[in-house]
Specification:
4 strands; 135 residues
Length: 135
């Protein structure tokens, strides 16, 4: 009985985060022909290197790029070493995505916009990032 309840919860959680996870899986899979690799760590799919590394370095709004980024149950990292450094931080975002489900990306972007329009740093002052950094 308990095992059935647990499996039901896992299925619900997976479906709740699926729209956000699909963004990361789509990006990661699209980058695999261009050198990206993947692995599963702590129950989360991680893509790294190749075109993923290039995108995180060149195609983000952060100065100098991002070390890693999370979409639901999927983390994209510049390299395997970058994932080792950022994994704990990114897993906070995994938990946030599981809490917020399909609303995670809009909520994250709205929080960044709110900080920006209040004259604060859209990244560092974002409540999602503050939680991930342990502030």
């Amino acid at each position: 009985m308990m095992q059935r309840m647990f499996m039901g919860w896992v299925i619900f959680r997976t479906m709740w985060t699926l729209p956000t996870t699909m963004v990361g899986l789509g990006m990661g899979l699209a980058c695999t022909p261009f050198g990206a690799r993947w692995q599963v760590r702590r129950g989360v799919v991680e893509f790294y290197g190749g075109a993923v590394g290039w995108l995180l370095e060149k195609a983000t709004l952060l100065e100098g790029g991002a070390l890693a980024i999370t979409f639901g149950d999927c983390i994209l990292g510049r390299s395997a070493a970058a994932l080792d450094v950022a994994r704990d931080h990114e897993h906070v975002h995994v938990r946030q995505a599981r809490r917020w489900g399909l609303f995670f990306i809009p909520a994250y972007l709205a929080a960044s916009g709110w900080m920006y329009f209040r004259g604060r740093d859209a990244y560092r002052d974002n409540p999602f990032e503050r939680e991930a950094y342990g502030d």
